[in-house]
Structures are given as C-alpha cells and as structure tokens.
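Posting this for the archive.
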Amino acid sequence: MKKKLKISFNSPVVLGFVAASFLAMVINYLTDGKSNQFLFMTYHSPLQSPLTYLRFFTHVLGHAGWEHFIGNMMYLLLLGPLLEEKYGSLKVLEIIAVTGLVTGIFNYIFFWKIALCGASGVVFAFILLSSLTSFKEGEIPVTFILVAVIFLGQQVYEGIFVRDHVSNMAHILGGIVGAAYGFVFAKGKSDDL
C-alpha cells in the first residue's frame, strides 16, 4: 500500500516571513512605493514618531523591486528551514528581529541620508549561522572561515569600489549577528553536555 504524499508546513517562521515580505511587496507596488516609505524602509526620521521604532524591525520586509525580493527569498527558503529545524522557530524569529534592529539602528545613526530596506541582512545572518551548524567548542569549522573570509572580503571590496545601491553594511552586520548566534548556540550546546 502506497502512502499518499502530502504538503507539510515545515518552517512556519520562514514561510510567514516570505509571505509577509510578498504582501509588503504587493502593497508597495499598489501604492507606487508609498508603503515602503511609510512602513517597510528605515531612514533618519524623527525619534518622536512611533513609526521610526517600528521601521527598525519592518524594513526587512520591504524590497526595492521584484528582483531584490526574489533573490532574498530564494536564500531564505533555502537556508531558513534547515535553521528552523535545528534551532527552533522562536530562535529563528529572534535572529530575524535582532538582525532587523541592529541594521536599522546602525543605518539610522551612521547613514542619515540613506534609506534601508530588504532582507539581505537576514540572508547573511542565515548564511553565517549555517556555516556554524557543526561548530564544537574549541574548534572553528573551515567552512565558516572560508565563508567569513570570502563574504567579508566581497562586502568590503564592494563597499569601497562598487556603487550599486546595495547596503554592504547590512550584509556585514547581518553576518556578524548570524555568526554571534552560531557561537552562542554552540556554547549552549556544550554547556548542556
């Protein structure tokens, strides 16, 4: 007797994030870019506005266009379910929120004239965290070293020499957040032994 195949909702946080980002993209398209400026983009706005603080988190849902959206979502859908299965939904949600907050505040403080939107920081947090999934205390995986060197080298190079409206700062900070979580998770795992 053959078992029937069924579709499983295997990664609720990642799938929810992708759905929310898609909805933000559709709304932005329908409002001719106004919704990104209002909710899904962080920039130097008055601290008296509650939306300034909300946008520190929600800017990761907004994207500049469909190509930007699709590129980020492909990485999130590739890496996110593996991380969500390994670390749990709440930890993945925490990583997304912390990455949004860190990149949003950093952009607000240091890049007054630049608006930031997109999930690239989250993508790079997932990339660096993924390279640390086999980390053991006292050891650093060669894969992590290679990913970090190649990734950081590329971001620094592009930040200095390429003017393409890509926030290399968000990529670097996202990678740092992901690496930090990887080390913390590994430390917690070794403490449990």
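The CA atoms of residues 17 and 189 lie 27 Å apart. The chain has one domain: 12-192.
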